[in-house]
Model the fold of this input.
Amino acid sequence: MKRELESILFDTFGYPSFRGDQLDIIKSVINGDDTFVLMPTGAGKSLCYQLPALYLEGVAIVVSPLISLMTNQVNALKQNGVRAEFINSTLEYSDYKRIEESAISGELDLLYITPEGFQGGRVRDLLDDMDISLFAIDEAHCVSSWGHDFREDYLSLGKIKDDYEDIPIIALTATADKRVRSDILSSLQLDEPNVFISSFERKNIHYKVEAKEQVSKQIEQVLKTHSGECGIIYCQTRNKVDTLTKNLQKKGYHAISYHAGLTSLQREKAQKKFERKDDIVVVATIAFGMGIDKPNVRFVCHNGLPKNIENYYQETGRAGRDGEPSFAYMFYGMDDFVISKSFIDNSEMSQEYREISLSKLKMMLELCELNSCRNKFILNYFGEEAKDECDHCDICSNEVESFDATIHAKKVLSTIYYLNSRFGAGQVVDILLGAKNKKIKDYSHDKLSVYGIGTDLSRSDWNLIIRNLILNEYICYSNPEYRTLGLTKKSGKILKGESEFSVTKKLGVVKSHRKAVKTNNSEFEDYDKELFQVLKDHRYKMAKEKGVPPFVIFSDKTLKDLSIKKPRNESEFLDVYGVGKSKSEKYGSIFLELIRCH
Ligand code: ADP
Ligand code: MG
Done:
């Protein structure tokens, strides 16, 4: 069976081998067992039901929560010569009729439907008239009210087991939460399922975190590093989104906004644009998320601190679904923390929930100010063991240095002591740096013995130290509203020399650290860049003509492999990553010609 499955994988999808647990999962489904799959985004969940759908007799029913997700998958499958269709509210009646007929006569391999289909009515009748090979419940976490994407419709999927006892169900999700997981198993009534849980490590994502200094410059640096590539910049508020988009547009970047303040039509347009263009940057609130399965998002940048690690992981996870090296940047500041905290403090949530939210927010800050492996921190947070070091975060690749700051901490604490807890971080730093402004003069702070004793560090270094002191409770906000700094019970330990203090000092902005990132795909990095661009431009034209997103035709990785192998004939073309028989027939001659001319 393995051979047979491998040949379907190669002939239809153009991939040389299975990833991770894919083969075992596929065997489980083919064997008729219920199957539960927990795999991170981009790991390749779709194949786990698409391949059995091709292998087994009958039509596979795929339940997916969003029309946009369905459309993309069905388009991509059709490009690979797979007989797939979807039924949803956007269909014309004549199409509906045609699809219905081919489903009944078994001329389909996969039929995608929305969960409402199970609530009775025409789709439900159709299912009864069909020979069904399996049910695949994609984004299965939507069934759980604990999850972040709960959909009431998903609850009706519990009926599948009652009505179709003998047909195997495969449920798939990327949500790690244990409560969500058990909700899925029980709601769908899975029958002694085979459970496959993959590591959540996103090896191809390089995590990089910096304190905000001049954040617009920092963001621009990211855009320069990734010019011509596609990315997402998350901001905390709609206002920030619109302002940043305007600024970037003025500077000539191809940027668009996305947030819940737009009409649904505007949002849909933005999403389509994002899917179809290769060099576009979406500036968005967290409203931009589900339904994005663009594989070649090369970077996700957080302008401000996410609410918690779950969100951070999910949002950064939208980068690099194609497995190619990708980047997650974050620029954070204490102001984000304070804003989010006051939002939690003033919310209507129960006391318990408030405390949980706050501790989650603190963990997020901790991740930022960590001086050990960020990947490990994230994986441990989700209950997964990890090695002490990875090769895809800024700390492990030595972009961030840890240094002893006990003396500096003492200087900060002394200054706060002299100021009687009546001033904020700005004034403390001004004093340390020996600034000559009006406020210093007015309060005669230039007469203090600590005045000017900190000129060895920059302002941003001092701010970093102060943040770390707050995080570790060596100082606190004596008045949260005015954010004046005060001493705590722990302060004395440093002042008396009983505790040492160290922080991660960020080095200057690293221009491009692509070379520092080791991935399994390094063989793809040495390609003919000019040819790649030619192929990319052509792919864009073809996609536009066909009205599909470019990646549906070929992935970036395929174009790169073409630019390395430069095939000369059809059989060499079939050897290229991501090229199956169907795509070779459709696009082989054009792309071969382009390569020949080049
Ligand atoms: P998920 O649903 O888990 O987020 P997808 O099913 O969308 O991930 O797959 C992510 C990408 O990985 C897609 O571009 C897919 O074609 C690719 N992929 C899946 N399986 C393989 C494989 N065995 N070899 C190469 N690429 C694969
Ligand atoms: Mg998926």
In short: The two ends are 42 Å apart (CA to CA). Residues 271 and 396 are 35 Å apart (CA to CA).
